[in-house]
Amino acid sequence: MPFLDACRSQKSTRVPVWYMRQAGRYQPEYREIRKNYSLLEICERPELCAQVTSLPVAQLGVDAAILFSDIMVPVGPMGVNFEIVEGRGPVVEHPLRTRQDVDALHGFDVHEALPHVLETIERVKDTVAVPLIGFAGAPFTLASYMIEGGPSRDYLHTKAMMYGEPDVFANLMEKLSEMVIYYLRAQITAGADAVQVFDSWAGSLSPKDYETHILPHMQRIFHALSEEEAPSIYFGVGTGELLPQFKTLKANVIGVDWRVSIRAARERVSQAHAIQGNLDPALLLAPFDVLKARAAEILTEGMEKPGFIFNLGHGVFPTASMDTLRRLTEFVHEFSEARLTSS
Ligand code: CP3
């Protein structure tokens, strides 16, 4: 399996490829389903959710499926009410601002609270031939939605709590870390072949603040996950300057965006880490020749060592074209097979 081999930094005959947000509004079939069901309603219907998860594998020929869900899904059963607002993202009813708000968060039994997530994984495993990636949001990125109350540009409330009430913030990070470990283990037991932890907004932190307030929690999470057979991936946006901090993380793969080159990313993380990334999704709108040339550059650097997974630097956006993604997938496979099987 090229995807799992690459996660473990083992040689394979081609560079595996999948796309963050490969299931979503750029697909006519997804838009059709969304006419009748909200995002969370899809997640609650295992048969439908498994279908949405599988669709991009059949349509694009990617090397992995990713569970269709949202990072906010497990936050609900901790006691936080939220909605996913079209075109905006998660919006929380009562943002967490005080010690009492954080103290009130509680654990849950995933089999009781989120049985549909586990059933979706089981169904996908029965029908899809490629590995399935489970996922969770990282504590900082989840906390940013829970504290701000919605998407944010500057994370002022989140940082105010981190600086002003570091023990309250640490308590929140601890509760979320415990949830992430528990939730991802349950996904692996249900059949997930790999897990990705999305720390999308960690890049808003200075290396020093990351080291003090976030790193110990991420160390704990990836230490726990390293005991599982399934490899783990850690992804964030704008993390170029944080990569040296990731050296000590026992994740198998570090995912990066386009603001750092694959070669530079490799030099900054541990020798043991595989790399995933990092095409700017905006290039999906460029003429195909331009897109291809950029993909070739990324692949050339990626193939300098075993342990590379081709992906975008962030998610597919709604106006992307399915045909472009299909041709890109084909190009990644052909370009890498030609080089990896001739040497
Ligand atoms: O195909 C896949 O990648 C799996 C599905 C997936 C979704 N959300 C479905 C979704 C995954 C992996 C996520 C993770 C997620 N959710 C992250 C981390 C990844 C990242 O993009 O940084 C974050 C930050 C969220 C929070 C969130 N949920 C945002 C910012 C938005 C976008 C708002 C918008 O409308 O553009 C959502 C909504 C969401 N989650 C959509 C999808 C397909 C789009 C809205 C919809 O279909 O209604």
Automatic annotation (TrEMBL):
Biological pathway: Porphyrin-containing compound metabolism; protoporphyrin-IX biosynthesis; coproporphyrinogen-III from 5-aminolevulinate: step 4/4
Encoding gene (name): hemE
Primary site of residence: cytoplasm
PANTHER family: METHYLTETRAHYDROFOLATE:HOMOCYSTEINE METHYLTRANSFERASE RELATED, UROPORPHYRINOGEN DECARBOXYLASE
Entry keyword Repressor: no
GO biological process per UniProt: protoporphyrinogen IX biosynthetic process
GO CC annotation: cytosol
InterPro entries (UniProt xref): UROD/MetE-like_sf, Uroporphyrinogen_deCO2ase_HemE, Uroporphyrinogen_deCOase
EC number: 4.1.1.37
Name of the protein in question: Uroporphyrinogen decarboxylase
Keywords, ordered alphabetically: Cytoplasm, Decarboxylase, Lyase, Porphyrin biosynthesis
Domain of life: Bacteria
Reaction catalyzed: uroporphyrinogen III + 4 H(+) = coproporphyrinogen III + 4 CO2
Site label Transition state stabilizer, positions: 70
Chain sites annotated for binding substrate: 21-25, 70, 145, 200, 314
The keyword Lyase is assigned to this record: yes
Subunit structure: Homodimer.
